[in-house]
Amino acid sequence: MGLTNHSTGISAIDSGLIIKRQHAKDHVVALAGNPNVGKSTLFNGLTGMKQHTGNWPGKTVSNAQGRYTYNSESYILVDIPGTYSLMAHSAEEEVARNFLCFGRPEAIVVVCDASCLERNLNLVLQTMEISSKVVVCINLMDEARKKGIHIQPDQLSKRLGVPVVTTIARDKKSLPALTKAIQQVTQKPAPCVYQVAYPEPVEEALSLLTTVLQKKTHHKLDNRWLALRLLDADASLLQEIKSLLGETFLEDPELREAQEQALDLLAAHQITPTKLQDLVTASLVSASEEICKDIVSMDQPVYQFRDWKLDRILTSRLLGYPVMILLLAFLLWLTITGANYPSKLLSDLFFWLQDKLSALLLWLCVPLWLHDLLILGIYRVVAWVVSVMLPPMAVFFPLFTLLEDIGYLPRLAYNLDRPFQCCKACGKQALCMAMGFGCNAAGVTGCRIIDSPRERLLAILTNSFVPCNGRFPTLIALISIFFAGLTGGITSTLLCALLLTGVILLGIGMTFFVTWLLSITLLKGIPSAFTLELPPYRRPQIGSVLVRSVLDRTLFVLGRAVVVAVPAGLLIWLMANLSLGDMSLLKLCSHALDPFARLMGLDGVILLAFFLGFPANEIVMPVIFMAYLAEGSLIEPGSLTAMKDLLLAHGWTIQTAVSMILFSLFHWPCSTTLLTVHKETGSLRWTALAALLPTAAGVCLCMLYTGICHLWL
After folding, report:
1. pLDDT tens, residue by residue, 367-403
2. CA nearest neighbour of 66 among 36, 28, 103, 98
3. Rounded to two decimals, what is the model's pTM?
4. Count of alpha carbons within 13 angstroms of residue 669, beta-carbon side
5. SS3 73
6. Mind listing the pLDDT tens digit for each residue in 61-92?
7. How far apart are CA 60 and CA 92, in angstroms?
């Protein structure tokens, strides 16, 4: 009689959803709701999966499906993007609408936020126009109780005519009632559900169409809902209707005549298509208000006083930006401070282990060339990657994820809306930019939350101007070595954090500049209105934050870097030991690149390392050190003092370090990010531009800085 979840047969997919049934009798259940109501948390609780959740709208931008078993019956749960309405105005809303309307799920669970049920009922009522197989799930009941909000779910169920259950998604004990209601709906749909009443002229127009549609749709779509859609004539929706009912369906003479009569009737009452949408929306809002009138009650009229006071500070014009910058600096200071000690421990461990492995290979009489390839080539690069990268990521990702859970990221987007509007872009780009700090590929995918194709493309092309996790260790190491001192004291780490904050702000500033430049040249247009619901501040789920940040982000990124580091170490060693004439391949390549690199204040080895680091930014610094080490120097992996000595021995100066920081911040994205850009845009031209823009910015800034240094120094 219990609930069993499964981790098999689950995949993230786009709007062209293919249901992965394991058995013919599997029931398909759609999980719908407004953004940020806990859908993904419910999905994880039912299926046992780890769909990424966060306290900000737009986290789910594609469908995901999972499977669970209840009472010996199997259910495929489809988590669709959050949407406020089925009258789609964005890509993710189209994904949600298309699956609910045309995916023919056997049950639809509409998740509502208990603290704002009246507003969420708008989507419930629209969904009930499509199907009677609806379960209303009122989630976040714990937060509603804290705010003094009381709901009568039984009375709501009677009024709507469909099952209503209350849940706390983080508490799995509240889920059995939901699974029981889902089973009830799949076996026996509600006989009579609530129907929204529209103004009399609209009802008359609907009646004209439904009379004809009853004879032609064969129950594939709800006739009343379809009639309403034919009146407002959404082009993308009409195309989906053709795909389901046939290309000639809308050309049927009887249907076209009924449609013309209905439109004439509306016109006679001066109801234009725009006014029709307004009337429909007003009717839904009025119905929601009437339904909730004596079902929802509050102890206090104003229950968000704490949130309001915090927003007065965090989103104010006077304090919003300083708080944002100070919070970023504090986050980076914690990262640098927290990463120093474990980084030293890891470097000591790898140096000790290197000696043991070397001794073992020599004892086994392994040929010297193979010993050097394995130890000085592959092992050394992997040691650099892990000892330098793992500690900062292990600290930064949990801290960044905490900001998501608390609810600060939407405030960040709100603060940055005005600058992006000045750049003729959308404020939602700030959310994609924030995702880019973790991974630029994830940030590019996150651009789907932007409605306008032009503004979405702007966000995609400029996402790599902010440093991803793969570039943070390089930036931290260089700033620590050349600018913040090597003492490791609080003054040193604080200075390092402030300098790194400045570097990141430079990246954000360049994002604004390039966005503006594109918006007045290649991608001209008027910025769209930006509407973003600010979620309530919530107590973070510490356990979930740690698991998600360590497993889903830190170890995933580190694993990718190690996979790339192994062949990179092999390649560097081979290039250093294979000669063409009297010069190694490594020296040949670096010498060929050296003249151009010198114009940028770099050297050929550095520029070659960026090319070899194309698969992953994480290996650029290890490649530089391995290239230098190939000439005979030996240092302990991860030691900042030894790193500085090696760099100085190869001609590095403060000027070289600054140029390196600039080019680390602005150069071509990694291969994963460019593949994601191509997938999202479907264009080689835009993919090439996404690589060219940051590279051109980096080359120009480096050359400008080098030229100034030559003139003044």
Report:
1. 888 888 888 777 877 777 777 667 777 777 787 778 7
2. 28
3. 0.68
4. 31
5. strand
6. 456 788 889 888 899 998 888 788 887 666 66
7. 8
